[in-house]
Amino acid sequence: HAADAHRTDLMTITRFVLNEQSKYPESRGDFTILLSHIVLGCKFVCSAVNKAGLAKLIGLAGETNIQGEEQKKLDVLSNDVFVNALVSSGRTSVLVSEEDEEATFVEPSHRGKYCVVFDPLDGSSNIDCGVSIGTIFGIYTLDHTDEPTTEDVLKPGNEMVAAGYCMYGSSCMLVLSTGTGVHGFTLDPSLGEFILTHPDIKIPKKGNIYSVNEGNAQNWDGPTTKYVEKCKFPKDGSPAKSLRYVGSMVADVHRTLLYGGIFLYPADKKSPNGKLRVLYEVFPMSFLMEQAGGQAFTGQKRALDLVPEKIHERSPIFLGSYDDVEEIKALYAEDEKN
Ligand code: P6P
Predict the structure, then answer these.
(1) Staple 117 to which of 43, 197, 280, 317, CB 3.0 to 4.6 Å?
(2) For the chain, how big is the Rg over CA atoms in Å?
(3) ipTM
(4) What is the annotated localization of this protein (predicted)?
(5) CA 44 to CA 41: how far, in whole Å?
(6) How far is the C-alpha of 225 from the C-alpha of 337, rounded, in Å?
(7) What is the 5 CA–ligand 1 centroid distance (Å)?
(8) Residue 51 has what pLDDT?
(9) What residues flank ligand 1, with Cβ below 6 Å?
(10) Mean pLDDT across the stretch 63-68?
């Protein structure tokens, strides 16, 4: 009857995580509480990003608003919202944000067992032209009760317990993994809830899209140059790959995850460690790719095996469909031998 016309088992992200958590009887719901605060931050940023154009139109952004306060830039505002939400969750001890030079150490009264590394608004230079942007986050657990230090987040990505991103585009979509696959949730603004729309996302084993900033081609090393050449002029008679590059990591990675292919931000002569940051760009996206059946490589090793020495360290990254990344790994291995 009519009621069946609508899905009546609305699987919200909170219900989903509670179901996941019920598999660990000993857990006290801390992760669910942490996640609910991350979700709150994402909802706020989604709303602010969607109004950004209007705010500019009615002269709020960048000038003084009606209270005479200096209107904050959206990435600064987003960072403040996430830091406040994470601290007030009472479930975190160390926070690393792309926006803050130093790590944030939560005061003892609000400390919890998680450490969160995040980019509150990645790709924010694209806001004014309406290109999708996003929040990227990774979560470690604190494995001691002493004073937290940056050592608690200078860990390999293979020690992350969860990672995800929220993409602010034609719809607001949160993609999350807690180590048991990758799941996509779409914000229903009328409910203010993230609803499970893409359960158990698996990346195609091989794709026909490559995603790289060709403008850096003159600075690439041999293996990357050879690989991109192969994408454009395949020798084995296979069709050339399509190039798709948004220039906003969340948008490029989200497309790669759903359609397959490979996303590359290689090292180049100008930036020997590439451009993307290990803790809150490379690790979370690599975690998701592996959980979805893909892989992530730095040019030398599995991306999640990197051990960062500084909280804003960069690394080259090649991630996406399993077979596509295998091809570039083979070219780097060959180069190593010669
Ligand atoms: P380029 C955005 O500024 C960003 O940090 C990522 O979101 C994106 O993948 C990359 O930089 C784009 O860099 O050098 O190609 O403009």
Answers:
(1) 280
(2) 20
(3) 0.98
(4) Cytoplasm
(5) 5
(6) 17
(7) 43
(8) 82
(9) 122-123, 125, 213, 247-249, 252, 275
(10) 50
